[in-house]
Hints:
The chain is 54% helix and 10% strand. The chain is an alpha+beta fold. The protein binds protoporphyrin IX containing FE (HEM).
Amino acid sequence: MNATSTTDEKLLNPFLVYDYICEANATTLVAFLIITTLFYQRVSCTLSPLHGRGIPVVPHYLPFFGVLPNFMLNTRVFITYWQKYYDTEVFACYFLGRMAYVITCPIASAQVFSGKYKSLTWEYIAKMIFTGAFETDDKMAKLLGVHPVSHKIYDKYLMNKTYLSDIVKAFQDSFAEIVFPTMLERATAPSEDGWSTIDAIEFFGGSSFMCTGHVLFGDTGLIDFELFRNVMFFITYFQKILASPWFMRPLYRKQYAARDILFNYMKEVIRKVDEKEGGIEQYAEVMQEISKTEVRTKMNLHDRTVSLLAPLYAASINTIPTTYWCFWHLLNSKECMETIKEEILTIRAERLEKQRLSKDDSGVRYTVEDFDRMVNIDSLIQETLRKHTTYRTVTTRFAEADCVIKVPNKGKIIPINVKRGDLLFNSPTLNHHDSELFEHPEKFKWNRFSPVNGKYPTFYKRGKELSKPVRAFGYGLTMCPGRRFAMTQIKILMSIILEDYDIRYKNDITPPTPKMAHEERGPCNGMPRESYKVEIRKRL
Ligand code: HEM
């Protein structure tokens, strides 16, 4: 009688739940935890008002953290799974105490990320890059992270054909006259039939970094293999150390040390330029203009070094893996190699003929127009960007203020009330594997984007033609200003090498496909974990 009344009392009185739990056995406790978690998981998504408006909310188990663990474990799997599950152009999820909207449709993404919603910015991520990887303070990060004045300068010098021509000429000279001969010197002595062996990551990735550094800063000291090794070491882990230097430094000491080696080297270059009258003229025009911006003239040497080094990092992080994989696929397909070689040799012969007729002795190997005509290399690069550079990537926007965005979903336009602090995600990886857009998206087809009988292939999503089906360079106002330069760099390396040399895998045997540094989880932009060997021989 007494015992029953105590149990009833406990059941009815919520303040006695603690006593009840203490007295419960392990099985009851586990069952209780499972039931509570499942109940929370159900409620967490179905009670959201977004459901009523046709925007599914992904269920989650953890308060505050929301879907973060599943998202971080494998972003690609997470986004693909829920997109398929809901068959939707947009879904929402709780993420670190805020709401995150995942825009899954390429058309909707292009609209939302275009810059037309001024409250949605890239600032949050850019700030994370500066404070995380470059250890600047918040104020500097905010100033430099998104700096429209600098963006305009990069756009002018790296996108506009007239200005880009100077950089393209300097890059060709740097590669043909200094970097390529240095690479050949490092190759093994030629075998009896003339082949020399060379490491792929050093040859292709190293050339991209060294020529870019040399051209931007006018300093041949950047043509250095030890510096390149340090850059590779740092940028391979770059995305992992964005979180917080305070937290990450003890875990990634060697990576930070590798970054400091390049940083200290560049600081010396910049200090010497500062001291020498007119020293700034050693830089490419784009870097001269960047150095002269008001914000930078007021900075101390340390901060200025960070801000001038940033474009070299931005360039290296993506161009090195892209170049590496482009050459991998060039060597992997005889058809690709023959078509591209013919493209290069034809354009080169036409350039020489034009120069002969106009008695032009400028020594220009290829003009920007010549590179623009290399449509088969273009296709190879686009396919590499689709499959490797965006292997597992997410584009992010942060809401600086409340705003209403309009997203097409299942034939209707749905307004979404985005709150200050919310996040918006789009995954180029997901879009690049959409079988409605790309036939057999899992396959690497080097000529997927090549014109056939002068006509470019078209790509449709929900009946609408997409002018840019591959989106590796971002969207809208902050879209990468180095995209044209990056594509041209790869064409320069291929043209100068294939013009006079044959190149193949070592012993003409295709090695196993190299693994990526972050193949399993986390962001992955195709940065390779391992290299492969190539053989090169001067054509007779
Ligand atoms: C395959 C090569 C490359 C890829 C895939 C790439 C991709 C990107 C992406 C995705 C962004 C962020 C855009 C956004 O989210 O809105 C970015 C920004 C940037 N990239 Fe690139 N990039 C490449 C090469 C280069 C090169 C060669 C340079 C310059 C030499 C460069 C300079 C920059 C700069 C300066 C920014 C920051 C823009 C700003 O906010 O003002 N990139 N890039």
